Amino acid sequence: MKRKRGARFIGMLMVTTLLAAHVPLFVHAATLTNDKIRESEESKKQAEEERKALKSNLTDVQSILKSLEVSKSNLENYIQELDKQLDDINSKIDRLTSLISDKEFEIQTTEKELEEAKSVEETQYNAMKKRIKFVYERGEASTAEMLLSSKSFVDFLNKAEFITKISAYDKRMLDSYIAAKDMVAAKEEELVAQKAALEDAKVAVENEQNALEELMADKEKEITVFEGDITNKEAAIAEYEAMIAEQDQIIKAMEAAILEEKKRLLAENKKAIVYDGGQFKWPAPEYTRISDDYGSRTHPILGVQQFHNGVDMAAPSGSPILAAYDGEVIASSYSATMGNYIMIDHGDGLITIYMHASSVNVSPGTMVARGERIGSVGSTGRSTGPHLHFSVRLNGSYVSPWNYLS
Ligand SMILES: [Zn+2]
């Protein structure tokens, strides 16, 4: 009974509450469920869209990486092609330069001969003037007098012969004078012709140099465009690191080969190269400035901190590269990043590296002396202008070249 009343009361209360609320409770609950479903459907849709966006982003990154890979290998091919062309032009310039020095030597020789011809001309001219003066001063009368004063016919004949000989001598002198003068004229003509040939050769060299400068400007532009195009920093940094890794791989292999050679020498009781601690010779004597120093720097395009493992010395293309110290050439080769490069072993784990040369004139195994010319400054490999990149390694790590340079 009590329960029934209670139940009726609850039932009434419920109705009252339902009426008071003005909102049908069961309808409200259904709406909530629908909202939840809609909400979850919404978030599912959103997640799907996000996944789609992520997927398309991923495709973008992959295509960027792919195009970077392609342009990187294209750039490397392009750099290699340009370096080949630079090599051709450099050897042409070398040929023309030696032609010019040959011509200059010929001109020097001709000028010496000209001096000699002039002195012969002067001597003979002076001698002839003396002779003419002598004959003139003595006059025809004295000649007749001399003949008439002959003591005998034989004496007369002798004197007549003497006079004939004197005039023949004068005639020879005159011929000789004319010949000397002709020689001088011919030499002068030859000199003029040689000078003209020299001028032609010089013009040809200048044209080749202009072509070389154009090629270098093209290369600089290409590299700048490529680096400017790189929007994906990570890919660019990876590319830079790959470049450094390539260099390190080559260099480390060389150092391992040196160690092997040292072991071999020790086994054979032969002396290995020893570094005596002396000061290095400045390797690019015609350098104009330090374009990039050794140490950490902020990459101008990528804006990240990077380590520059050498000193960049800006110098004219073709100017000498000198061996910094006595040693043995252990590498003289080409790589797409280092260009034409040379490595010298100075003993006791000390190695110097020279990069971006236009030409090299030493080969592995060559012993070089401090200050000896080993190549010419250039802009081969990953370089945007003629400079020498000079690195020093000690026991397998880069060290500051300034420890050895003054
Ligand atoms: Zn450098």
What this model shows, in words?
With 406 residues, the protein is α+β, with helices and mostly antiparallel strands. The protein has 3 domains: 50 residues, no CATH class; 138 residues, Helix Hairpins (Orthogonal Bundle), CATH 1.10.287; 171 residues, Glucose Permease (Domain IIA), CATH 2.70.70.10. It is 63% helix and 16% strand. Strands 1, 4, 6, 7, 8, 10, 12 and 13 form an 8-stranded antiparallel beta sheet that branches. A 3-stranded antiparallel beta sheet has the order 5-11-9. Strands 2-3 form a two-stranded antiparallel ribbon. Strand 12 and strand 13 form a beta hairpin. Helix 2 runs antiparallel to helix 3. It is elongated. The N terminus is likely disordered. The protein binds zinc ion (ZN).
- Our count of domains comes out at 3
- Write the element-wise H/E pattern from the N-terminal end onward: HHHHEEEEEEEEEEEEE
Distance between the termini: 114 Å
| Ligand types | zinc ion
Number of strands: 13
Overall geometry: elongated
Helix content: 55-70%
CATH class wording of the largest domain = Mainly Beta
The number of helices is 4
